[in-house]
Structure formats: C-alpha cells, structure tokens
C-alpha cells in the first residue's frame, strides 16, 4: 500500500512516501477488531494531532467523525441517527455517533485546520510543535494554506 497522490493537493506529492503495507494492515486490523468487539460497534482512534498555521498540537477531543471505525452498517446507522437528530432538533451538540471503545494507532491522524473548515478553527492551549514523528515538519503542510 502506498500513500495516494491522485487526490493530494498541489505540491504535496513531492514529499509523500510509501507506507509499509504490513504496518498499515496491522493498524487497520486492530481498529476494526476493536470496533467489532465494542458494545456499540464503533471505535474511535484517539491518536490525533491538529495542524493550523502555527504548527502541530494535540487534539483536545478525540472522538472525531473522521476517526470513527466500525462495520459499514453500524457507521451508516450512527450517521443516519445524527442526521435524524439534526432534522428533529435543528442541530446537534456532537456530530459523532456514540462509540464506547478507543484505540491509539501508532501513526497519528492529522486534523488540518486551514481556516475555512466547516467546523471552525482550533487552537492549542498547551503550545505548538514544529514536527510530529512520521508526518515530519509542519511547514511541509502549512505552506499549502
């Protein structure tokens, strides 16, 4: 398995490298197995770093919809439930369906906050980092926004 470049923003493909398929497979397998074993059928990865123009910082809330895993029918039902809640109440407090299990994958997910995100910006209360292991320097990404 390699890091895809077909959908990468302009200028990103010059520094993407391939991801060893065994490492990617192990992490995915752990995540899916944890979701299936959970009571709700959903599992959230809590290994998340945010990135804004100032640099990387640890995510304050780790139940991001982009880091939700589970069998397709369970994830679909959870998202449909949230859409029904929006229709009935005019909004939701949390967009993420409830999940009762968390994993911390070896390679963190990066939540990019470029200033035009639908869910708004995020700032760090604990400081910024110029580099995160595996992903490299923040400047590689922040130069794109």
* Alpha plus pi helix count: 3
Structural class: alpha/beta
Calculate the mean pLDDT score and round it.
Answer: 79
SS elements, strand count = 8
Number of domains: 1
Q: Major β-sheet, in short?
A: 3 strands, mixed
What is the strand content? Answer: 15-25%
Instruction: Enumerate the spans where pLDDT stays under 50 for 5 or more consecutive residues.
Output: 1-25
Q: How would you spell out the order of helices and strands?
A: HEEEEHEEEEH
Side by side, the strands of the main sheet go 4-1-5
Helix content: 25-40%
CA gyration radius, whole angstroms: 16 Å
What is the molecular shape? globular
Note the gap between the termini.
27 Å
Write up this protein.
It is a single chain. Strands 4-1-5 form a three-stranded mixed sheet, covered by helices on one side. The chain is 27% helix and 17% strand. 17% of the residues are buried. It has one domain (21-115, 126-142). The protein is of the alpha/beta class and 145 residues long. The protein is globular and about 40 Å long.
Brief summary of the model shown:
The chain has helices at 21-37, 72-89, 139-142; strands at residues 43-45, 48-52, 55-58, 68-69, 101-103, 109-112, 131-132, 136-137. It is of the alpha/beta class. It has one domain (21-115, 126-142).
Strand-helix topology:
Layout: H1 21-37, E1 43-45, E2 48-52, E3 55-58, E4 68-69, H2 72-89, E5 101-103, E6 109-112, E7 131-132, E8 136-137, H3 139-142
Parallel strand pairs: 1-5, 2-6
Antiparallel strand pairs: 1-4, 2-3, 7-8
């Amino acid at each position: 398995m390699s890091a895809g470049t077909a959908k990468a923003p302009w200028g990103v493909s010059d520094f993407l490298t391939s991801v060893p398929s065994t490492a990617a497979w192990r992490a995915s397998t752990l995540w899916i197995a944890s979701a299936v074993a959970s009571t709700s059928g959903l599992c959230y990865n809590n290994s998340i770093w945010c990135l804004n123009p100032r640099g990387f910082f640890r995510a304050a809330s780790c139940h991001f919809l982009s880091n939700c895993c589970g069998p397709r029918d369970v994830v679909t039902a959870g998202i449909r439930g949230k859409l029904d809640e929006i229709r009935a109440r005019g909004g939701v407090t949390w967009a993420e369906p409830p999940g009762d299990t968390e994993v911390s994958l070896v390679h963190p997910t990066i939540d990019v906050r470029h200033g035009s995100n639908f869910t708004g910006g995020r700032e760090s209360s604990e400081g910024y980092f110029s580099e995160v292991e595996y992903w490299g320097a923040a400047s590689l990404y922040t130069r794109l926004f």
